[in-house]
Backbone:
């Protein structure tokens, strides 16, 4: 099933992941597995919700056997992503994880080196800030990654022109990350 995207068609902030996972393929909606639940929590932590953003993936269909996307699959979907950016016209495109970041930036730099650093970019003729962050699934595997994700997400309101909630330390405790029994439960692999 094609998973085109979901959210506000006039959003200032667009999230782009790699490809739909098992749960996304089943429902037709992006980021509905455990990583999606964590994305919801991260958005809530900065005063936003799914209704305020647009969420999509580079690939619109799950690769067979959940293998890595092939170059021809990427090429087949790039035009759709460019068209989505053209239609939504976000101020910021937030790439989720290594794959989306490398593809959207056109650079070989890994997510560990570039997360949390905005750069000027253009997609579909629209000038945007590209803001790479770790994929939420990373925090499901490595609990210490949650703090890094929260710190990067805390910068998003200012990038899209919203008033920034208290810039101090979060007043809420760090949300619990659900345990992961197997990668398939994530709906990403």
Residues:
């Amino acid at each position: 099933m094609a998973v085109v995207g979901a959210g506000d068609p006039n959003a200032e902030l667009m999230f782009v992941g790699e490809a739909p996972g098992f749960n996304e393929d089943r429902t037709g909606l992006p980021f509905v597995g455990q990583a999606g639940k964590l994305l919801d929590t991260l958005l809530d932590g900065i005063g936003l919700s799914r209704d305020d953003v647009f969420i999509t993936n580079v690939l619109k269909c799950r690769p067979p056997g959940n293998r890595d996307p092939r170059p021809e699959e990427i090429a087949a979907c790039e035009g759709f992503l460019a068209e989505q950016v053209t239609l939504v016209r976000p101020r910021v495109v937030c790439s989720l994880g290594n794959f989306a970041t490398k593809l959207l930036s056109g650079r070989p730099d890994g997510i560990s080196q570039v997360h949390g650093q905005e750069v000027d970019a253009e997609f579909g003729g629209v000038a945007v800030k590209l803001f790479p962050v770790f994929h939420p699934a990373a925090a499901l595997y490595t609990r210490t990654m949650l703090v890094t994700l929260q710190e990067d997400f805390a910068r998003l309101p200012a990038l899209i022109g919203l008033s920034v909630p208290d810039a101090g330390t979060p007043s809420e405790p760090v949300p619990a990350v659900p345990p992961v029994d197997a990668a398939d439960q994530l709906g990403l692999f």
Observations:
- Residues 167-189 have pLDDT under 50 and may be disordered.
- The longest strand covers residues 13-17.
- Residues 71-88 form the longest helix (18 residues).
- Residues 132 and 138 are 13 Å apart (CA to CA).
